[in-house]
């Protein structure tokens, strides 16, 4: 029997940049055997596509057109833009900054909305982003909002960059995190904020495994209420 999308469970995990939501969401999905959606990758791909084609990130109509026709595919942990493997490229700081800017454009968000919802397939979906529980999957069975201090998140990003052989400046990363947070929370459409019924998890001093177990426990409780 084919399940209607509304009957397919979704766990929505939102939070600011480098809060650990992507890692937690992917591990939760693996434990449950659910599909995984990294919604931020779609915005990063949109920004990268615009940058490659010389489209200004504040040209809303042009960026929205790119988002609507994005030749993006995800396969075996790799991210492809047309025939190019951009798995590492979309994680560059400049692309992340660009993603935050294009994500503030209403028509870009509208262009990607149906694309994100199409990931809702049986047996279930774990979706991470900034508006998964408030907009994209407002009917999610379980909602979680992961956060951490800007300093802790900047330190995590600093370590990631250094491990990859890139140069990084910690004070600049803290400032970038704070600027991105301000932009994400202040945008007019789908601002970054916890859903009213979301579990709030501060990962400043919490390990990934503890966060994963907390999300799984929350899902079990929420799912039991539906039985």
Characterization of the model:
- With 227 residues, this protein is of the alpha/beta class.
- The chain has one domain: Rossmann fold (3-Layer(aba) Sandwich), CATH 3.40.50.
- The chain is 50% helix and 15% strand.
- The chain is built from nine helices and eight strands.
- A hairpin with a 2-residue loop joins strand 4 (78-81) and strand 5 (84-85).
- Helix 1 crosses helix 9 and helix 7 crosses helix 8 (170-186).
- It starts with 9 loop residues before the first strand and ends with a helix.
Short account of what is shown:
This protein has 227 residues and is of the alpha/beta class. It has helices at residues 21-32, 39-53, 60-68, 93-102, 106-117, 132-136, 150-163, 170-186, 208-226, and strands spanning 10-14, 35-38, 72-75, 78-81, 84-85, 125-129, 142-147, 199-202.
CATH topology: Rossmann fold
Indicate the CATH architecture.
Answer: 3-Layer(aba) Sandwich
**What's the β-strand tally?**
8
How many individual domains? 1
End-to-end CA span: 19 Å
Task: Determine the oligomeric state from the structure.
Answer: single chain
Task: Please write the CATH class name.
Answer: Alpha Beta
The helical percent reads: 40-55%
């Amino acid at each position: 029997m084919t399940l209607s999308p509304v009957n397919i469970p979704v766990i929505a995990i939102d939070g600011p940049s480098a809060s650990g939501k992507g890692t937690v969401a992917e591990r939760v999905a693996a434990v449950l055997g659910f599909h995984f959606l990294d919604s931020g990758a779609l915005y990063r791909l949109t920004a990268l596509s615009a940058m490659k084609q010389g489209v200004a990130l504040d040209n809303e109509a042009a960026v929205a057109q790119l988002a609507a026709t994005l030749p993006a595919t995800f396969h075996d942990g790799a991210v492809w833009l047309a025939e190019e493997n951009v798995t590492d490229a979309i994680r560059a700081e400049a692309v992340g900054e660009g993603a935050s800017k294009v994500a503030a454009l209403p028509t870009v968000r509208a262009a990607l909305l149906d694309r994100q919802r199409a990931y809702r397939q049986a047996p279930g979906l774990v979706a991470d982003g900034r508006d998964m529980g408030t907009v994209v999957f407002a009917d999610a069975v379980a909602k979680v909002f992961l956060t951490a201090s800007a300093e802790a998140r900047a330190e995590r990003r600093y370590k990631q960059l250094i491990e990859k052989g890139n140069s990084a400046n910690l004070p600049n990363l803290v400032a970038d995190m704070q600027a991105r947070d301000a932009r994400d929370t202040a945008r007019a459409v789908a601002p970054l904020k916890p859903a009213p019924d979301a579990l709030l998890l501060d990962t400043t001093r919490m390990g990934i495994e503890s966060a994963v177990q907390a999300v799984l426990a929350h899902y079990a409780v929420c799912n039991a209420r539906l039985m």
